[in-house]
Design brief:
Chain A is of the alpha/beta class. Chain A has eight helices and eight strands; from the N terminus they run αβαβαβαβαβαβαββα. Chain A has a single domain, classed as Rossmann fold. In chain A, β3, α4 and β4 form a beta-alpha-beta unit. The termini of chain A are far apart. Chain B has two domains: about 190 residues, Rossmann fold, CATH 3.40.50.970; about 140 residues, Rossmann fold. Classes of the chains: A alpha/beta (about 250), B alpha/beta (about 425).
């Protein structure tokens, strides 16, 4: 088994635990991703799985949610904000009712520099190591208006599945940033992380000299896209408007 | 199945082609629109948004066309009849997910109100240069269905046809209209719902545990289910077998017939059913020496030339493509054996003309009447080409380009100027 796959398994198994402990009909849960998870990981979850084109999982999920607002749509994406970053920003702005689990392996980023036990060897194109700064993904989500934001490493199994379970029951655009990497680096992430609940997302950027801040950062309410849609169209169209049932 | 009376705005209207498209979509049962405004298609989206919320449809203006088409695919899996509306540049952005839609066999409709291209082109004027793109635009092998209306009335009717075909064959269907038809205002008659035939989605009806996502019926199309209905779906964009599982191992393929990739069916379900899909309108083909092959707005311009040529004593037939794709290959082949040649006017520098040439197997001359876009043909050019074919003694191997008045007066002069220097 490939190392990366094993780490994906950690995240999927946290998702599995979350599904088990959440009072939600599993069959109503749809999982949308822009990378193809293998069937053996997905089938046991008992949910519907859709693999879309790279970077387009969020708009696909948007359509799915609007096509049937009774569904709970969970999007798994990779280092996001490369392909499809714009969709992330706009889904947040609209407060589209989807949960994003960002499986973040930071291949585009320089993390903790020399102190890593194993250096992050590559941006995909480069044999000479990473030299780019990372997005502060929770802060980005915050500025877009996400209603729930948390970050954990894949080794924070209990906390992660707790967060997923909570977010599954939340209405609105939620983000869980999961740091996931080869096992040795993941260990390093885990030991160098510090739980700080309700931390200002301004302070959670992953940088070379700081601890990796994990925890739940944001939990708030905003009207979702469908709430606003129903409100506006009812106001303008009156009785003619057929409300979208959630 | 008949249309739902609530969805059909029965009556006599004076509207443009764009608006007629929107009303057609609503009548067909379309309940989801994701799009991004782009000239000259925006009026269609606006018209949909004005009326569709009355019948329980939902719209969203996405951040771009990449998102629009992805949302359409998602909504279609969620069980809705879904579409997007766009024009050239937006159409280009949609190509990747048209491929995904074809691969996952999702029924959906795209309206492309064509404008001048390439690139930003002539946003406010007409063109017919996206025809090949509609067929081959995304990578990989698949077949689509494309329809070409020539009037607001047809825009309405073909939208219903488009949704019916999408549901019937689980494939992308494109309405390849153009700026002229889109912005042309004419009388449109919307009949009562009882006169509109609607193809319902081919939902799977067997026991849940026996469902196999791409198991085909005799017409090579497989029944579909809705996301979230407990089928434990596994749907991926990788090349897959009928269960939807990825295929990459040729050895396994040889051993196990169940693991055959479904790719073959993406083309076969259209090719093998083409006689049921293809629609053309023919006029006086029998005994004709020249046949004009046209589609969309150009077929209306060609009418004038055909009338004139007939009064000049030439036996001219007309073959108008309702479905541009799949292409009526057999019919062209049959006609080619009996006529001197074809005249193919189109608002591009040769797309369908080469298809006509391919299908005539050297049996007939093919004359292309090109047009660079931003307006329609001068009927005189089409008439000239008809005369040329009628009087031509020689058989040419390739498509011959008819030099139109516009070409001569603009490019001809410039070429002569360049040559002089």
């Amino acid at each position: 088994m490939k190392a990366e796959e094993k780490n994906t398994e950690l995240v999927v198994s946290a998702f599995h635990d979350a599904l088990e402990r959440t009072p939600i009909e599993k069959t109503r849960v749809c999982m949308v991703s822009d990378i193809p998870f293998p069937p053996r990981l997905i089938r046991p979850l008992g949910v519907d799985f859709f693999h879309t084109t790279r970077g387009r999982a969020i708009p696909f999920a948007t359509g799915m949610k609007l096509g049937n607002p009774k569904l709970k749509v969970v999007v798994f994406i990779g280092d996001l904000v490369t392909l499809g970053g714009n969709h992330f920003v706009h889904a947040g702005r609209r407060n589209m009712d989807i949960l994003i689990i960002c499986v973040n392996d930071s291949i585009y980023t320089r993390i903790a520099g020399e102190e890593l036990p194993v250096k992050l060897e590559r941006i995909r194109f480069s044999s000479y190591g990473s030299f780019e700064e990372s997005f502060n993904i929770p802060h980005l989500a915050n500025s877009c208006g996400a209603v729930y934001i948390a970050r954990w490493t894949a080794l924070h199994k209990e906390e992660l599945s707790g967060s997923i379970s909570y977010a599954l029951q939340k209405n609105g655009f939620s983000l869980i940033d999961v740091l996931s990497q080869k096992s040795d680096i993941l260990e390093f992430y885990h030991t160098n992380s510090e739980v700080r609940e309700e931390e200002d997302t301004n302070n959670v950027a992953i940088t070379e000299d700081k601890k990796i801040i994990v925890g739940k950062f944001i939990d708030r309410q905003r009207p979702t896209f469908i709430d606003s849609y129903n409100k506006q169209l009812s106001r303008v169209m009156g009785d003619k408007f057929v409300k979208i049932e959630v | 199945m008949k249309a739902n009376p609530e969805d059909v705005f029965t009556g006599v209207y004076y509207i443009d082609g764009d608006v007629a498209c929107a009303y057609g979509a609503i009548a067909a049962g379309c309940k989801f629109l994701a799009g991004y405004p782009i000239t000259p298609s925006t009026e269609a989206a606006e018209a949909f948004v004005r009326r569709a919320p009355e019948v329980g449809a939902l719209f969203i203006q996405m951040e771009d066309e990449l998102g629009s088409i992805a949302a359409v695919l998602g909504a279609a899996w969620a069980g809705k009849k879904a579409m997007t509306i766009t024009s050239g540049p937006g159409f280009s952005l949609m190509m990747e997910n048209i491929g995904l839609g074809a691969a996952l066999e999702i029924p959906f409709v795209i309206i492309n109100i064509q404008r001048g291209g390439p690139s930003t082109g002539v946003p406010t004027r007409t063109g017919q240069a996206d025809i090949m793109q509609s067929r081959w635009g995304s990578h990989g092998d698949y077949e689509v269905i494309a329809l070409s209306p020539d009037s607001p009335q047809e825009s309405f009717e073909f939208m219903i046809k488009a949704f019916n075909l999408a549901e019937r064959y689980r494939c992308p269907v494109m309405l390849m209209s153009d700026e002229c038809v889109g912005h042309m205002t004419e009388k449109v008659v919307i009949p009562p719902a009882s006169e509109i035939e609607i193809e319902p989605r081919r939902f799977y009806k067997g026991p849940k545990e026996d469902y196999i996502p791409y198991k085909r019926e005799s017409d090579l199309v497989s029944p579909i289910v809705k996301a979230g209905d407990g089928y434990n779906l596994y749907i991926i964009g990788l090349t897959h077998d009928e269960r939807g599982y990825p295929i990459s191992d040729e050895e396994a393929l040889k051993k196990d017939l169940d693991k055959i990739s479904t790719n073959r069916y993406l083309v076969d379900k259209i090719r093998k059913n083409r006689d049921d899909i293809i629609e053309v309108v023919e006029d006086q083909i029998d005994g004709a020496e020249v046949v004009v092959v046209s589609y969309g707005i150009t077929s209306r311009v060609a009418l004038k030339a055909i009338e004139q040529a007939r009064s000049d004593g030439i036996k001219v037939g007309s073959l108008r493509l309702i479905t541009v794709w799949p292409f009526p290959e057999k019919r062209i082949e049959e006609i080619a054996a009996r006529v001197k040649g074809f005249v193919v006017p189109e608002i591009n520098y040769g797309q369908v003309a080469f298809e006509v040439d391919r299908c005539s197997h050297g049996e007939a001359n093919v004359i292309l009447v090109p047009h660079g876009g931003a307006s329609v043909h001068d009927p005189k050019d089409i008439l000239g080409a008809i005369h040329r074919v009628a009087s031509e003694k020689k058989r040419y191997e390739n498509v011959i380009e008819y030099t139109t008045g516009l070409e001569m007066s603009v490019f001809g002069k410039r070429l002569a100027e360049i040559a002089r220097k």
